[in-house]
Known about the structure:
The chain is about 5% helix and about 35% strand. The protein is mainly beta. The longest helix is centred in the first third of the chain and has 9 residues, at about 50-55. The two termini are about 45 Å apart.
Amino acid sequence: MSRIIRNAAIVLWGFWVLALPSLGAQEMRVSGTATGEPEVYIAEEGDTLWDICDRFFDDPFYWPVLWSFNPHITNPNWIYPGDIVYLVPPKPKPVVREGYEVTETRYVPSPAVEQVMARRVGFVAKDELEEAGIIKYAREDRQALGEFDEVYIDFKTARRIKVGDMFVVFRPEGKVKHPTTKKTLGYKVKYLGVVKIVNTDAQRNKGVIVRSYEEIMRGDKLMSFAPVSRVLTPVKNTAAIAGTVVGDAFDQKLIGEWQYVIIDKGSKHGVQPGNRFVVRRRGDPTKTLKEKELSKFPLETYGEIIVVDVSDTTSVGLVTYSLNEIQAGDPCELLAGY
């Protein structure tokens, strides 16, 4: 019998809903406590988030929400015996402050926001595209594919695929280049739907399209499924890292608060989700000054970006604060300990 501590509360957020056949719910005996602690579940051999949601919420489609409660689970397809799975969001501990806090400036070394609801945007890093799967063939006798059509999938790189794995179907639409080096960092993409793996017995994996937002074609790409939205909490930067704002995924020249940007630093450089880049400048925004004159000014913070998604060499961030518009080519940096 699995160990469960329960104290019910369910929060519903906007996620992709996958129209998949439900598995029969298993009967579980649930014991409660009066401690006020969030309920947790201790994973056992063979457990998946899909199964856990089916067991405790009678709704396997709830798994993306459950995943958002558990940021320590880095891959929703892989949980291990003994892993702690929070069934509700852990309650933050209240901060008690005495007296008044006075500051001489608008800029303080604290998060611009305590949490953000981050969503997936239309950008795929170059290395992710190179490792993406591809819908090579289909069982249907037509070119355009849709929901419940069966497809055959190839992957360029070796990976462990199992029945039930989910993949997002996408189509590259244009290169994203570094504003200075002109090097290709990734691609703007259009998300087309979701595929579920149903058979891995043969060399070529078989999947079924469980959600289609528009026509899917042979040749379209696949990447690991992740919820379109999730709650993200700031994480302290462990090192100082200098980067550049490459731009955004929507070709906007001027970028402000609550818009998404692409940054030319990723996990290879030590960046992780929740880190915060600051955009800092010197001088007077209304004047064009020479470098020698600019060097006489202190660095001032003009924007803050929280990292929401990371690949090897790039990351996507959400602008949570901007005093002035942010533009492609603006320098940004992680401040150690911030």
